[in-house]
Amino acid sequence: MLIRNESDQTLIFKSAEAPDNARIPLHRAHTAVKTEEGQVQLQQQVFEGTHLFFVHAELHTPLQTRWNCTDEKKLLLLNLEGEAGIRAGGKKEKLFTRLQYNTISGQVKSFRMTLRGNRQRFLLLLLDKKSISGLAKEIRRALIAEVSGWKLPENGRLSLAMTSLAENMAGCRLDGEKGKLFLRGQLYALLALLADVQEQHAKTVYRYCKTDYDMERISFAREYLLRHYDLPPTLKELSRIIGMNEYKLKRAFREVYGNSVFGYLTDYKMELARKELETGQRTASELAYDLGYSSLQHFSKVFRKKFGFPPGAFKK
């Protein structure tokens, strides 16, 4: 596994594949590097063909990285904090915001990951064909079905239980067989929860978002909104950008994400503002401007409506 900074091609992480024998049940590596974009800590744990990467980054500018594997992997990202984008196989980038997860379609050998959050934390699981096959055999087929063919809902939201399992895996300090047993147990529990989400999603019948193409267009609409949150398009402009009429866009978006187009965008911006205010690094006036509000008063009104208290409540 090689991970490079795409801006200057400097090496961030290099790890040899863990030996595939019973004498070394768990392989672990760790690195901490400082780049022009900020500081990155990366921890790798490998067992039975499964690679777990836990990354914690403190950045002042976005960091674009290139990941190269020795063979094809299935990717599952659990984004705990910050905003990350993954692009693989020549497809458009898939955007992940705080507490979102999803798989990346197909098997990939190389992919680009862009970290955009000031504080970024995520768990990335890379599974090879052998480990996927092993999982399917060891867990009841009714639970996992065909793991390699999973099609999870568009960026599901991590539950408290899923987040706890991810944190447990990231914090594992057990070695050898004990470590492998612990990580396997946590991984199986996580896959069970995801399989349950998959099963519930399969039962969902959408009235407006009927096809894979519709889902792709609605997903792109969401990603476009979040990328341009400070100066978002009008509904008419967005419908033209994604190639869907306004009527269907409004109803399909609410059907998939449980909120209106601009209600979803407002919630996203308010969550960004709350996180910034909690750290005390930026003022409400700065955030109002950066998030595209016409005045501090307008920003404060929306913030109070969302959280029940004004942004000034964070002042010490």
Mean pLDDT: 84
The DSSP helix count reads 10
- Number-wise, the strands total 11
Uncertain segments are: 138-150
**First and last CA, distance:** 45 Å
Please identify, by name, the CATH architecture of the largest domain: Sandwich
How would you characterize the largest beta sheet?
A: 11 strands, antiparallel
Estimated share of beta-strand residues: 25-35%
* Share of residues in helices: 40-55%
**What is the CATH C level class of the largest domain, in words?**
Mainly Beta
CATH topology of the largest domain: Jelly Rolls
Query: What overall geometry do the principal axes of the alpha carbons give?
Result: globular
Radius of gyration from the CA trace? 21 Å
- CATH H level of the largest domain: which superfamily? Jelly Rolls
Number of domains: 2
Computed structural class: alpha+beta
Textual characterization of the structure:
The protein has 316 residues and is α+β, with helices and mostly antiparallel strands. The chain has two domains: 202 residues, Sandwich (Jelly Rolls), CATH 2.60.120.10; 103 residues, Arc Repressor Mutant, subunit A. Helices cover 40% and strands 29% of the residues. It has ten helices and eleven strands. Strands 1, 2, 3, 4, 5, 6, 7, 8, 9, 10 and 11 form an eleven-stranded antiparallel sheet that branches. A hairpin with a 2-residue loop joins strand 3 and strand 4. The radius of gyration is 21 Å and the shape is globular.
